[in-house]
Specification:
By secondary structure, the protein is an all-beta fold. It folds into two domains: 89 residues, no CATH class; 194 residues, no CATH class. The protein is 1% helix and 32% strand. It contains one helix and 23 strands. A ten-stranded antiparallel sheet has the order 6-5-23-22-10-20-12-13-14-15, with no helix packed on it. The chain has a five-stranded mixed sheet with strand order 11-19-18-16-17, with no helix packed on it. A four-stranded antiparallel sheet has the order 7-8-9-21, with no helix packed on it. The protein is rod-shaped and about 125 Å long. The relative contact order is 0.13.
Length: 327
């Protein structure tokens, strides 16, 4: 047995070259050189080969020696026997390397977002995945909702669709004709355009925005008594029940501020309302509601469906929920 001086593999005594790396095992004597036999040339006199003849495993095409099939190099002449890619002979006699197969990377499956139920301090109490088939929230849809008596039996539905970029999803919420509605929290200092008769909530107060319209004269042309509407953008009305309302406040064109301690409309007995909570302003014939960085937020009731973003907060019944990404 002869050990290779380069890689250390043990070879048979009759081997001239290392079976692992092809290094000569018998050093050449001075004045002596080892000349491997040459392959027959592919001359034009012989013509192009029709097909490449199949080789026996381990057979050396250079010197004709038979080697074990596992050998990478010929033990007699060090010819490489196995290669990693396929070599082919073209009709012109030149070698070409086979093209590797194209690797197709599958698109990552979108990760479903979560509907997180929140504690009063904002920490997560429980989560529910919003799968491809969507999910529903309602008092009759599980024990987690059963204790909220302001929640309808089938309150709202959430669904996901593919987003504009690969791997992203979009979430939509739909009010399923609930009694008390679906509310979404406004981002601080971002004006929200109110629509006529839309309801918003601050603290424990439900407030409805209404537009003002002049009453036409009667059939005899008699005008109605009333305050001039010039300079007013609308009014807000306290909602006391389904069909009952309370105090109304006109919204001047210059705007109106609501809070517990400051503003034109104050709620000193509602501890959930901040000192300066939100404001109403008018521009281009529309009225905008803006949260002023309040502690507990300003919520508006949606109509129909609304597209949500990760981080949006919902008020369903008396419970807060947040849309968040899966980890």
């Amino acid at each position: 047995m002869i050990a290779c001086t380069k890689c250390g593999k043990t070879n048979a005594g009759q081997s001239s070259f290392c079976l692992a790396c092809g290094t000569p095992l018998h050093p050449e004597k001075p004045g002596e050189s080892r000349q491997p036999a040459l392959l027959p040339s592919l001359s034009s006199e012989r013509g192009p080969p029709a097909t490449e003849r199949p080789r026996r495993p381990g057979h050396c095409p250079q010197c004709g020696a038979d080697n074990p099939p596992a050998n990478r190099f010929c033990a007699s002449c060090a010819r490489q026997l196995r290669v990693n890619t396929v070599d082919r002979l073209t009709s012109g006699g030149t070698k070409t390397r086979a093209r590797p197969l194209d690797i197709v990377t599958p698109e990552p499956a979108p990760t479903p977002p979560l509907l997180a139920m929140l504690h009063a301090d904002g920490t997560v109490a429980a989560t529910l995945p919003i799968a491809a088939e969507g999910c529903r929230v309602g008092r009759s849809l599980g024990a987690r909702y059963a204790g909220d008596h302001f929640l309808s039996h089938h309150h709202c539905s959430l669904s996901v669709t593919a987003g504009p970029t690969m791997g992203e999803v979009q979430v939509r919420v739909k009010d399923d004709d609930s009694l008390n509605g679906v509310f979404v929290k406004l981002a601080p200092e971002v004006p929200y355009a109110l629509t006529p008769n839309q309801i918003f909530r601050i603290g424990q107060q439900l407030i409805r925005f209404e537009t003002l319209a002049s009453m036409p004269p009667d059939e005899h042309g008699v005008e109605h008594f009333g305050t001039e509407l010039a300079g007013y953008a609308g009014r807000i009305v306290m909602v006391l029940g389904r069909k009952s309302t309370g105090t109304a406040f006109p919204v001047p064109a210059a705007g109106l501020q609501l809070g517990r301690e400051r503003g034109q409309v104050r709620y000193p007995d509602d501890a959930f309302i901040s000192g300066a909570h939100c404001r109403l302003s008018s521009d281009d014939g529309r009225v905008y509601l803006t949260d002023m960085g309040s502690s507990n937020g300003t919520f508006v009731r949606i109509r129909g469906e609304l597209e949500l973003a990760i981080g949006d907060t919902l008020l369903l019944g008396q419970q807060l929920y947040r849309i968040q990404a899966s980890r």
